[in-house]
## 1
Amino acid sequence: MPEKQSFLDIYLFDPNQPYTHVPPLEGESIASFLYRFRRAKGNRISSARQLGEILEVGTAIKRWEDLLFGGRKPKQKQVEALSNVTRVEVDRLWQMFPPEGERSQPNTIRICAACCLESPYHRIAWQLYSTAGCERHRLRLLPRCWACEKKFAVKELLNATGCKHCGMPFKTMMKKQKAY
């Protein structure tokens, strides 16, 4: 039986390009995009470090995948280098980072379980201090699983149906999210 393909796994392969093009998703965080890009068929980029070496941007990719900005705004040259390899416009890539003047939450990945149930990928808006909840579902964001209390990880959200640690489904988590 063929493996079910997710909309997250739809890529654009061009034999004349060294890397498979991965279209960004609406509101997607740079971390989510980078994980999807690295694991896309044909890209075979095993780590953030390897991608950083390809782009000649040092450890920036690892920080971006961990959503650790710490007041350090990415450099235009770094984003341009990423654009050249991913074939995603520079302006579109900038939308995946916290907006100018906004601070993001370090060390805690927040999610809307209802959004993840519909399309499991990480949104940049969820990481902003100014974001209390999901505008679409009017629910407060979850900083950890309700059942096992483990923190979420961006790469574990991709194509997931629930918590990677205990298996609690997003549908059940959604019922426990509070309205705001």
## 2
Amino acid sequence: MKLKETPEYITLNDPEGKGGPRNGHYAELDPHFAAAREGAEAIMATLWNADDWETFRNNWKGEAPLPEGTPKLGEDVEESYIKVPARDGHQIELKVLKSAKHTKSAATADDTIVVLRMHGGGWAIGWHNTEIIENHHAASHPNVVLVSIDYRLAPEHPFPTPLNDCVDVFKWVKANAREKLFANPDKIVLLGGSAGSGLSLGLALKARDEKIGGIIALALDWPTGAHPKFFPELREKFGYELDSYSQVPQGVVAGALIMEFFLDAYTPNVQRDQDHSPLLAETFAGLPPAFLQIAGFDPLRDEGLAVAEKLQRGGVPTEVHVYRGLPHCFSMLFTDLPQAKDYQARQNAFLEKTIKLANAK
């Protein structure tokens, strides 16, 4: 797969890599990552060695051994698959994960939360197991059913199809959670990573604007917030910094040219629309409590921080963790880092807190 020679939407005007005055310090490299960076970049380069989308997607499906402490399939979690209809008749595959040690039934439905997973992968790659570590942790909780959405991928299915698929699954869950999942349709957590975070925000805004209840929390990892074509408008109107593309143009996993590759697949001939660029929304007021984890050495860093700022300006309870000097998706790449363990522990704690609040009598 080939990238552009120069960015089309971003001006790389930060040769010293200082970033903006508010957020630039987050890019100072973590020493453990700095030592492993060259090897990680070499591995990432092999994944791009593909001449077609099928090969490219398969390159990204290799699975490393799960780190110690990850709940295991068969022992701690069990999986099943179902298909549900999209608005155009397409059958969307869902992977359902739940605790293998705690039986779900009609009697437990009121206190069982649905965690609706929108995977990452630039809207064009990725699958049910992209965030397998996080999914197994969430699904092992006795009060959780995790539902992963195999939404259709760009460029074959550009915007708005991936978002529409997620919206259609959300509405199916609302209508069928009790009967099909033994879960509460009014206790739904949206869990998204990278592109999946952007889809989660788009879905949450649609639910808010259409007055569909049931979403009790957002868990957003390395969020995408807007197409960079609209960064000048967002800087001028809202004061967001949005300098991390220029500061980290060659980040591991995600870089300026890599992001433009995926954005061009997802939103060719992009037009202004908050459905693909949630930061364009006038306000995030009315969204549920949010939990964000953001990497410091990541071109998406400032989008994530802008999302957090917009949530806070809208009066939304927001918990934010920024991991200085670590790259996009570091928790999956460097699972032995103490920060990766912190990342997972914090997500687990947020989910536990959300469940306790939702089920408080």
## 3
Amino acid sequence: MRDLLEQIQDNVPGKVEITKEGLVHDMMTPGGPHELTAMRLRRRLEQAMPEELAAHTGTPDVENTAEGIMRHPDVMVIAEADMEVQGSFDPRALIAAVEVVSRSNPDNDWVGKVRDYPLLGVPVYAIFDPRTGTGAILSDIHTTPEGPRYATRKDFVYGEDVTIAAWTISTDGLPRYAALPQDITPRSL
């Protein structure tokens, strides 16, 4: 799968990742509210964390070749020392993965990554959803018959403080996606 991904990545719009169930392609490149949310979360985390840690928003991906999974979190909380590698980051080195839900493919963040991140050993997964102004922090990986899963889920609404791993940050001022015409329901007159 990785060879196929490397061949097509530069020729297709959006982002392609390898999941436990195959390739997932988010056709749309993230827009303003998505990128602004990721940037604000990165800054807030870095203000709260020790200097030797980073809230990284760039490349590379995180990959577990034995499981055949390669993901690219919007924000990765990781020690700078664990970034000094060739190729993909080891997902077990992540302290947390933070995702801003894509408008075009929300199931990738709410279903696929909820399945894949505990399988990869990512201890904390934070989801921010600009469609609804809500999110969840998932943690405490445990074994189930279907494989590793998060045991704890803490839901939040924008405006509340949230704790990601050991750091509490504000969700005030995070942007929301503007309603699209199909998102608007007609009002009765």
## 4
Amino acid sequence: MRAPNSIVALVLGWWLAFGASLSAHELRPSYLQITELEGETYDVLWKVPARGDSMRLSLDPYFDERVKPVGDPVDAFVDNAHIRRWKIECPGGIAGTEVTIGGLERTFTDALVRVAYADGTEFVTRLQPDDITATITAAPGTGAVAWTYFVLGVEHILLGIDHLLFVLALLLIIDSRRKLVGTITAFTLAHSITLALASLGYVSLPGPPVEAVIALSIVLVAMEILRKRRGDHPATARWPWVVAFGFGLLHGFGFAGALGEIGLPQKAVPLALLTFNVGVEAGQLIFVAAVLLLAAVLKRLPVQLPEWLKAVPPYAIGSLAMFWVIERSWDYTFGMLIS
């Protein structure tokens, strides 16, 4: 059942060549929130991924001619994001106007647009590089909210290289279908618990340390793979579902951090949370199925790969993850020292 190491090496090589070269900050969605105030006035918050206190993605929202700015915008860099706040006036109400995210067509990321009306209803839509303009309407139905957050969940897991690298490492050490099913189930259950608790505000952990420990979890599983290659019987190989559940709790905080950056519609929090989580699971299963299918196809090819190639995946996985541990720990520690 286990994917051949040579196949995993090919998958990992593709990641390192293309996926890992993309900054995680660049892949985070941008976020535009418009909150209705009084007298046809609206508060606008625009949040885009950034690096440090000076560099941000070159993305900006543009409204049609009905919308007029009020006062000067206020800018700030907070937690690897650039935030701009200002007010606008729109005679007749914001519904029916168009909003365009300039520069989105040149990125790999999305933009979530959310309008909170004074009566408690909300309009939510998602813009992509090939669809950068939306017409704001009254609050959409539950189907539109569900689909938006489902797609965001799928994209988050498929673009979350660290989360998928953890799943890939588990695939390397699992040697039976029963263990695979149990491991995926345990990982799903664990991160669903912490995703819900953290998103609803019952539990809170600082994001950077959680991200560093998530990377460390990948290093530990990579070390377990090497132990198994030497003939040992590590706990991860014998009870992978236990390891998946324990570390899955941490990964759930990572998912919650991403969802927190996007925000939840106040009138549809359970629906948005559920569909985002379902999207994460769907993306995870797509990845597992793709790796196993690729392994099954290429296993039939009459190609004899060198024995040393089998050592590439665990060392590559562990090295990349250890780089993340150092990078994330340093960024957090340095930020604490200068703050």
